[in-house]
Amino acid sequence: MNRSLHDLLSTLSYDPYKDTLFLAGDLLAKSSEAGSLAILDFLSQRQQGECFPEIHPTRPEKASGSVARKGSDCKGVYPVRGNHDQMIVQWRAWREWFEPLQLTFPSANLYRGRFSVPSFPSVTNSESATHDVGPPVGTGSQFLALIESEWLRDRKTDPSGIGSDPQEWADIARKRAVGTWRAEWWKRIPQPGKGRAQKDWIMFGDHYWIARDMKPEHASFLFSLPLVIHVPSEHFFLVHGGLLPSDPRRPADDERQPLAHLPSSDDVMSEQGVDDYDYALLKVDPPQDILQEMGTTGNLTRHEIEELRIAQERSILRDVPHNRDPWVVLNMRGVRKSGKVTRRGDKGTPWAKIWNGQMKRCNGFKKVAPDAELNAEDAEYEDDAERSITRFGLSQGTDKDEDDALPCYPSTVVYGHAASRDLDVRRWTVGLDTGCLYGRRLTSLVLTRKSGSRKPTRTTPPDEDDEEDEDESSYEEEDELDEYATGGPFGAVNSRFARVAGGPAVSRTRKPKTWTRPIKFGDKGSDLDARLVSIKCPKAGDFAGP
Question: Is the pTM of this model over 0.85?
């Protein structure tokens, strides 16, 4: 993955002095451990403001230097946390607690020095094997070093038997330790959970070793990664798994849903829907600034409408309980009819379909200030006097069904995670995971300002020109099969087609090693140009090097 990442950056002529880099998570544990550590080196040092001249060919005058340049002129790197990143974070945080831990064993005579357990399946006789537990160790780091060496020994000497499955090995070692001093250490080592936690805490898996071997600065970098990045100036979110526009346990037009009403100071402290949620939620500070300053009557300027729009987007993160559940935003692929989230791509309704269905219902909320009351900057961008209506009204003159409309503006989600759906670009969601790990592609979304642009994207009425998009409104199917799966094993899932721009699937069978295509992104009046750039990754399994 490290090689593919740098190939893509080279294809894009990425310049860290000009370009801001966002990443949708899970670049780690996707190839060799060396490759993951190399990516951590690159990203953590870039986040610290170090620009490396050897990797930007667009600036040959800087390539002669051998020392990394630091300074405020180096643009930032903004990754979000992925579900695999989270597994590494968990192991690293646990190790930092466990390694300095000290246990005292007053008398070794209190513990058996040898013990017997049934033979492993690879052993053909029926006799029990006898093992020497060895002398007690005093610190957590010593115990980890001991069991790691034993696992590596068994993996080398019996790769098809005892050394074939690290978690099975750990389970058996844990049982062997009962009644010995080792049991005191093993009881402090976490085990895989059940249900949605079944993939966590796999002993001696890829995440374990990366967590062990990464540098302190790597750990600090991973600990700092947010779950969601909100870019209010362009009205989009970056997340690894997904977001929901409303609580799926209620109708989208329920007055408690964030898109069903304008945000106001009366509901900024709302905790509705939290008490009956099954899991612990993150605390999110309410967006009080603009709401506390606004009254309930009077005219709104375009600037105030923009601020209300941003506040409403923040309320999506705060008022939808699922969006405050870390597991959901890291793992979600679909939603069942019951409102429960699933990580399976072949169950429930894809969350992106739900998001687009509700964004298409957004009919806007408009200002009432006449042109004469706007300041010069706002007036310069005023399109039409017909767009002025009462503060809490809906847009007029559109072909949307007013009974179905919501008082909101659409926002976009850019995400990864759903490799089984491949490239999945709809009007208000951009799914970029194209299965590089499986030898397919690594794809980027490139946003650039249009030539002559003088100010950030402004609020415009919801886009009315997207009738070619398929109807996303019917998303109540139970356990809907993956729309884009071709059936068969994973290698055949969407192997020939990619969904782009909400239309029919587009053939990928003859795509070149590198391809580029424009897409719609953001508001109709946005000053952003958006394009996808995709490169071919090495074949699955060809990740021996970094």
Answer: no
Is residue 127 helix, strand or coil?
coil
Q: Rounded CA gap, 403 and 13, in Å?
A: 48
Containing 506, the helix (H) or strand (E) segment is strand 506-507
- The phi, psi pair for 428, rounded to 5°, reads -120, 15
| Averaged pLDDT for residues 58-83 | 64
Task: Of 225, 237, 365, give the one whose Cα is nearest residue 309.
Answer: 365
What type of residue is 425? Answer: V
Smallest Cα–Cα separation from 492: which of 502, 482, 501?
Answer: 482
Phi, psi of 535 (to 5 degrees): -125, 160
pLDDT, averaged across the chain: 75
| Nearby residues of 417 by Cβ (< 8 Å), 6 or more positions away | 24, 25, 26, 82, 83, 240, 241, 242, 330, 331, 333, 433
The pLDDT value recorded for residue 457 is 46
pLDDT at 74: 81
For residue 432, pLDDT beyond 80: yes
Exposed (0-12), middle (13-18) or buried (19+): which is 377, by Cβ within 10 Å? Answer: exposed
The Cα–Cα gap between 278 and 543 comes to 40
**Contact by Cβ (8 Å): 516, 531:** yes
The HSE-up count of residue 286 (CA atoms within 13 Å, CB side) is 15
Q: How many CA atoms lie within 13 A of 149 on its CB side?
A: 6
Collect all residues with Cβ–Cβ distance below 8 Å to 135 and sequence separation of at least 6.
108
CB 305 within 8 A of CB 365: yes
Which own/partner contact pairs does 501-505 have at CB distance under 8 Å and 24+ positions apart? 501/425, 501/426, 501/427, 501/469, 502/356, 502/425, 502/426, 502/427, 502/466, 502/468, 502/469, 502/470, 502/472, 503/468, 503/469, 503/470
Per-residue tokens: 438: 């499986």
The pLDDT assigned to 148 comes to 95
pLDDT digits (tens, 9 = 90+) for 312-359: 999 999 999 999 999 999 999 999 988 899 988 888 999 999 999 999
**Residues 14, 15, 18, 21, CA torsion sign:** positive
* Greatest extent of the chain over all pairs of C-alpha atoms, in Å: 94
Cα–Cα distances in Å, from 423 out to 88, 320, 415, 420, 445? Answer: 26, 27, 11, 9, 11
Tally Cβ neighbours within 10 Å of residue 357.
Answer: 20
Q: Half-sphere exposure (CA, 13 Å, Cβ side) for 213?
A: 18
Residue reference for tokens 């957590």: 140
Strand partners, 115: 131
DSSP per-residue codes, 347-389: SSEEHHHHHHHHHTTB--------GGGS-HHHHHT---GGG--
